[in-house]
Amino acid sequence: MTTVTTNLTARAAELLAAMGAEVPEGGDLTAISPITGEPLARLAADDAASVEAKITAAHEAFATWRTTPAPVRGAMVYELGQLLRQHKAALGELVSIEAGKIRSEGLGEVQEMIDICDLAVGQSRQLFGLTIASERPGHRMMEQWHPLGVVGVISAFNFPVAVWSWNAALALICGDPVVWKPSENANLTAIATHALARQAAEAAGAPVEVVQLILGGREVGEQLVRDERVALVSATGSSRMGHEVAPVVAARFGRCLLELGGNNAAIVAPSADLELAVRGIVFSAAGTAGQRCTTLRRVIVHEDIADELIERLRAAYSTLPIGSPLEESTLVGPLIDQRAYEGYAAALKSAVSAGGTIHAGGSRVAADEHPDAYYVEPAVVELPEQVELMHTETFAPLLYVVRYRDFDDAIAMNNAVPQGLSSSCFTLDVREAELFTSAAGSDCGIANVNIGPSGAEIGGAFGGEKETGGGRESGSDAWRAYMRRSTSTVNYSTELPLAQGVTFG
Ligand code: UN1
């Protein structure tokens, strides 16, 4: 594997300074680079009083932000997009340093932020409701979409800044201030992004209070989730986290937008273009070191082509360059931390006990050189059937393979897990492709044909069903989650006819 020689701590500080970020140094939060396991900075966490003050500031800013015309609000998001373009290289590199993503994916993450800013700027002129035919003469019935209130964003380490932007860009144009609680593993990228967001507000003449950042552990997130002024909690992370957040928000009749675990499959049918399928599978399963919620975790392959596919996967996996994500040639960077490695090792062990055969990978690498960093070989494990272990999401590059005979059984296996984020099918048979994407096909929020389950673009609504939580972010009409609908009936006649033909007096 390739080695790291740069001083990551100095480089991170340089990048933060270049983006105009002030780092709240000297507390108990440690920012660590998964590339080496070395500490990058010690940061001060928010306490209950500062969280309270920040939510209050956001809530107060709502009073003016909600009546600022939406296209004017869009000007702030336009400025943010421009700043992200300007600082794409710096923020992308910081993502690589703090989250361990390879350079191309670090830059891709920032591009995804730019894309959602572009989408949101256009959307700021398209926040429309319907006019609906009234049954009463001289009456007009219409709906309007109004700003909702403060939006709390809880994000995960793996898309440390893009997840905030999918929410924030839309929330801001919808008239909602945003309070962000990033992953404890990704505070520096959050600090940098927050600095850019504040600069964008200043450049656009918007109140800087519409963006707030709170750093800390679980208690900080809990305070955000409990606060009744937070009208919408948008939380990205594990299904376990969603199980904790959703009831608390529901108990106060707040709104939740949940993007939780995925357990995404690819069906590979006999007609598949295998060359293309292998490329799609390797990117989706081993890319981002298996740490996307859209990562491919299960291949369901037709028995007639299973041996050939496995052989091709074995060959492709044997040449995957693992190492520092800062090296241009690397395709697989580190896992985020020791716990992630333990999850990978434990799942592999369980797979073998369940009768699994390891066809590729399966070991930790470079442990001597980097005892505090966790690099692993992406693994391919074949199982005799879809065993219980395959129903859980292990956030690591671990790909399970099972064989199928009937396409209907393959769809049933795709749907048999508790999660419902993404799915894909490699086939050149139009009937299979259409069935897979139909109401009787994949039960996931995303159903792709001839591409893997990961790497969605911003124009579509992103999210999934079942334990994935049901939320939708980004494109299509996802903006509506950040607004409240008001239905107004206006009587411009001199009579007072009642609906449903009711007479009164
Ligand atoms: C995530 O892993 O949290 O579709 C989101 C994708 C990315 C988003 C992943 N656009 O893979």
TrEMBL record:
SUPFAM superfamilies xref list: ALDH-like
Query: Can the keyword Protein biosynthesis be found in this entry's annotation?
Result: no
Enzyme Commission number: 1.2.1.3
| Highest taxon in the source lineage | Bacteria
Which of the seven top EC classes does this enzyme belong to? Answer: oxidoreductase
* UniProt entry keywords in alphabetical sequence: NAD, Oxidoreductase
| Aldehyde dehydrogenase domain span | 29-485
| SUBUNIT field | Homotetramer.
Protein family according to the UniProt entry: Belongs to the aldehyde dehydrogenase family.
State the name under which the record lists this protein: aldehyde dehydrogenase (NAD(+))
Q: Which organism is it from?
A: Epidermidibacterium keratini
> What taxonomic lineage is listed for the species of origin?
Bacteria, Bacillati, Actinomycetota, Actinomycetes, Sporichthyales
